[in-house]
Write a structure and sequence with these properties.
The protein is an alpha+beta fold and 807 residues long. It folds into five domains: 196 residues, Rossmann fold, CATH 3.40.50; 128 residues, no CATH class; 174 residues, Isoleucyl-tRNA Synthetase, domain 2 (Alpha-Beta Complex); 134 residues, Isoleucyl-tRNA Synthetase, Domain 1 (Orthogonal Bundle), CATH 1.10.730.10; 62 residues, Roll (Ubiquitin-like (UB roll)). The chain is 36% helix and 20% strand. It has 25 helices and 34 strands. The strands form ten sheets. Strands 10, 11, 12, 13, 14, 15 and 18 form a seven-stranded mixed beta sheet that branches. The protein has a four-stranded parallel beta sheet with strand order 2-1-26-27, covered by helices on one side. The protein has a four-stranded antiparallel beta sheet with strand order 6-5-9-19. The structure holds one RNA strand of 86 nucleotides.
Amino acid sequence: MPFEPLHQESLIQQRWMEAQAFRAPRASELKPGDRTFYMLVMLPYPSGRIHMGHVRNYTLGDVVARFRRMRGDKVMNPLGWDSFGLPAENAAIKNGIHPALWTRANIQEMKGQIQKMGISYDWDREIATFLPEYYRWNQWFFLKMWERGDVFRALRNVNWCEALGTVLANEQVVDGKDERTGHPVVQKALEQYFFAITKYADELLAGHDQLDWPENVKAMQRHWIGKSEGARLTFDLAGGEKVQVFTTRLDTLCGVTFMALSTEHPFIVKAAESDPGLKAFCDQVAAMSREDRLMSDIKLGHRSRLEAIHPFTGERIPIFAANYVLMDYGTGAVMGVPAHDERDHAFAEKYGLPIPKVIESENPWEPGILVNSGEFDGMTSEEAVDAMVARLGGRAEKAITFKLKDWGLSRQRYWGTPIPTVHCPHCGVVPEKAENLPIRLPEDVAFAGAGASPLLTSPTFLDCACPACGRPARRETDTMDTFVDSSWYWMRYLDPKNAELPFAKAEADAWSPVDLYIGGIEHATMHLIYARYFHKIMRDLGLASGDEPFRKLICQGMVLKDGFKMSKSKGNIVDPDEVIAKYGADALRLFMIFAAPIEKEIDWTGFEGIDGATRFLRRATRMVEEHVPTRDPLPAKDQLTAEEKTLLVKLHQTLHKVTDDLDHRYQFNTLVSSLMETSNALADLPADAPHRGAVMQHALEVFTLMLSPAAPHLAEQLWQTLGHEGFCMHAAWPVADPAWLSADEVTVVVQVNGKVRGRILVPASATGDERRAAALACPEALHHLEGKEVVKVVVPPGGKLVSIVVK
RNA sequence: GCCGGCGUGGCGAAAUGGCAGACGCGACAGACUCAAAAUCUGUUUCACGCAAGUGAGUGUCGGUUCGACCCCGACCGCCGGCACCA
């Protein structure tokens, strides 16, 4: 059969499907001693069409999954849909299509496209997060976490648009206005639900040690969690009240000349009520958009009428409201030490405050030796902290602060998991009973666009009975952040139809943790922190074992076009579907893994790369077509000609390397190079080689098996042509034969003073001394030894080289 | 500013302390063809040379080593993340 990718590929896909070739076993089907491998790619959002990023991600995962299967592992390789979220709701508002219909249509479209790529997913395990069978478990987790005290309610600011009467996501707000209608957006505090993720902050930080993850991802998470060790210190106010600050530099306490509080700090808010100047300043800061606040590093402050008392000196310290103090970090109040903090310094200069030096060190912002600090003079910063804590008694204690915030999960949206609580006029906020799950999204809603959240328009949803007292109550209309959906989905794949639990412990123990997780770097912090958090919750609920969900993580690079991210707005999208239609899935897969190392960007400058992949596949096909299949056994080594032996040595050396690339190194671009080298070596075997039939049969079989993970459709076709029944994808991965890993004779490089001066051919069995002697007799080397004294001859292990040192 | 990563041909890249540039793209030359496409063969780091060859070469400078793209130190440049976090 000639190389006809499209025709062949769909036929082969159909055969795989009919044979359930990608099916992953249930835990009960696994036998003792079975090796399992859980290959996971990040859950896609069903936006409508797949893009090259998906293609790259799924191809890489599929190469690993197929390789592991051939190695004899039991492989879990599932896919599903992250199918709640804003785009579906926007489409509903814009086109009047119900989000469910829009979502279903997109999933169907994208699934078809992915299937054309020949990715070996076990589609029986497919999940979609918008289905009640899935999101009921989000609700179930919420209730379990509520019981454990991992859920709480608190006020948090949202982007509120008064004209629309709705809440907007950050990306919908541009320049303080709704992106579509231009109506003004303000910050408004709403009572919302939170997961207490900060309880796990320390464990999330420590857990990195056991993870085989890219260093930059771990660094981003460390930064995000932002652990900071210091002290909490209470100052008395002149009026008798107390204000607490957090500082990492308690040692600088004697250098405090002012105190700065966030404009949102309760004391400032209260003081502003009777201080119009302060009120005006706070309003001015509040009116600044988030971007403006971040962009400007200008320190603004306003002196309040409040004063604090220095705990050592009793001096009065002015209290300012300042724009550079954040309410949601630490205590929202800082002690100003202008001599030893860059920001405080700028502030003090601007407002004419004294800047007394209390630390002697090279860099004023770094710790050192205390001066002008009374009894603490001469101490190191470290000693001073302990001494001051002791001296301050109950006013100060060592404390740790995190940047990580508790996870606000409320969304004032329709297309998400309804939060399973009820507002009862008598009982307050009450969790729904577990047996009433799922709380389904209602159908009778209006997507007017303007106005309230669609859930508020559904009487059948709103009116309910209080789970506690049974009297009429109102259902919660907030839905969950879609990150909840993706924080445990990989466990649901293991038991996707379980109606009793999110998944059975037996399945979790059989497959978890995920062995390899591949996805985009854009999920380095949010998704990958939430998922790690949820895994720990699942562990603590007794559902899963182990501390971490993803053993190894690889973040694949983006696919660009002419240096830019492909996007609709730029009009530079290369549609995978069209490429597959023209070149076939195998060529696209091969190009995707060959073009660059996995974590680097690929720039799709043109179609030359994929042309190259196609040429290679054609050559391979032709080589197999021209070969006459034979069952003749491979003759003994000593009967073969030099060329035949050269081919077999190259073949087995390459096999060894390819196995290593796939098994340990996860280096896929060199896998393809190796395949090309093998094919070139095959082409070099003389047409009249005496044992050509048997040698080629063996070599082509190994080649086809090695090709199978990357270009699985063609491999099936070639496998058949070579005279085999059954699927190539189910054949055993070949093992490199040690007899062929080295040739009879090997080339030894001769170096003189580190420069390559000659090469000699020695028997593979030659000892180190024999190699040394042969090297010293090498004519090209001798030329460079003339008139010099040989100081030393090094024959390193491996014997591929002899290094001669002369003077 | 802080954190992480990366600097190798015309381009994508390879080399797990041991022959730098595998493999591919592009380019050039040739074969086939009336011609083109496709395909095949060869050349392709730079300098000098007809050639054999010689010398230089992995951002820069230094170090360790018989031997460094690889390890160590300093610097330069680029990319990514975070960014008033007290």
